[in-house]
Amino acid sequence: MKNNEIAEVSPSKRGRWGQERRLEFIDSRLYWEGRLNRPALTEFFGISVQQASLDLAEYMRLAPHNTVYDLSQKTYLATEQFQPVFTDPSSARYLAELYALTTGVLAADISFLGWTPSADIVRHPTRLVPQAVLRQTLTAIRERRSLRITYQAIGRPDPTERVISPHALGYDGYRWHVRGYCHLRNDYRDFVFARILALATGEPSDVDAYEDAEWHRILDVVIAPNPALTVAQQRVIELDYGMTDGQLMVHTRQALGFYLLKRLGLTQPPAPARAHEQQIVLVNRDALIPYLPQLASSGRE
């Protein structure tokens, strides 16, 4: 590449010059859109037409049965035998990226998705995490240091001063919290970022994160359609959740288990009269009962 070509490329795109990344781009566009032309490569990566041609030739060498060139359209088309070799072809990966694009978390100029359908999401109130608080927390976790925080617990009228030794971050579907050892309570707890009113880096901590049994213990949550629904309705619920043989097993950390059950509406036994509202039930409730009181009381702040 010539010097004047390098100067025309924005700094934000320089990290994408590697050919392996461009081959992944080709693979992704062919898989999801079924077609790709040279301008898509040159515009996205800021490379020359010659380089784009070399990349396409290399892709065809590595995956000779994936694409053919259509002279009339001047476009590479995916074949019926197409098998992705560089990109994650799962719908979960595509929808996660579409979600990130829709919410603005991911900028369009760094996403491999080209054409996308009209899409939107149900937007929930979110609690923003101050950048300075997040940075200090990450530093404390990485360097194994304690944090001195002023925390407003929901069960207390006034904030309290705490010293915590953080070791992980958790997300309950609506908000982020920091998981760590509370030296005031002598226990591992969750602290919602939005409730941290003040924060300062403390002393080196000798707390061993592996002693947080609730964080490292994995629970199996088994759900099924509410038996109070009709057989046809139960089948619909099975399809909604992708159940096998009428059940779905969800793995979760014990420390996050209560949040999962709460979000699914499964902290209480099902009420038959509310089957249309509570469409799933917790199958292995008896096996989880020993953990539920712990999750509901001591696992939250």
CATH topology of the largest domain: Arc Repressor Mutant, subunit A
Q: Bin the helical content.
A: 25-40%
Q: What is the SS-derived class? A: alpha+beta
CATH architecture heading of the largest domain: Orthogonal Bundle
Task: Please provide a written account of the structure.
The protein is built from 11 helices and 11 strands. By secondary structure, the protein is of the alpha+beta class. The chain folds into 3 domains: 3-110, Orthogonal Bundle (Arc Repressor Mutant, subunit A); 131-212, SH3 type barrels, CATH 2.30.30; 217-297, no CATH class. Strands 7-6-5-4-8 form a 5-stranded antiparallel sheet, with helices on one face. A 3-stranded antiparallel sheet has the order 1-3-2. Strands 10-9-11 form a 3-stranded antiparallel sheet. Residues 1-15 and 294-301 have low confidence and may be disordered.
Please describe the topology of this protein.
Blueprint (H helix, E strand, L loop, with lengths): L2 H6 L10 H15 L1 E2 L1 H8 L3 H14 L4 E4 L4 E4 L12 H13 L27 H13 L1 E7 L8 E12 L4 E7 L4 E6 L3 E9 L8 H4 L1 E8 L5 H11 L6 E6 H11 L15 E3 L2 H4 L3 H6 L4
What are the defining features of this structure?
301 residues, alpha+beta, Arc Repressor Mutant, subunit A, SH3 type barrels, 3 domains, 5-stranded antiparallel beta sheet, 11 helices, 11 strands, globular, disordered C terminus
Question: What's a quick, concise take on this entry?
Answer:
This protein is of the alpha+beta class and 301 residues long. 35% of the residues lie in helices and 23% in strands.
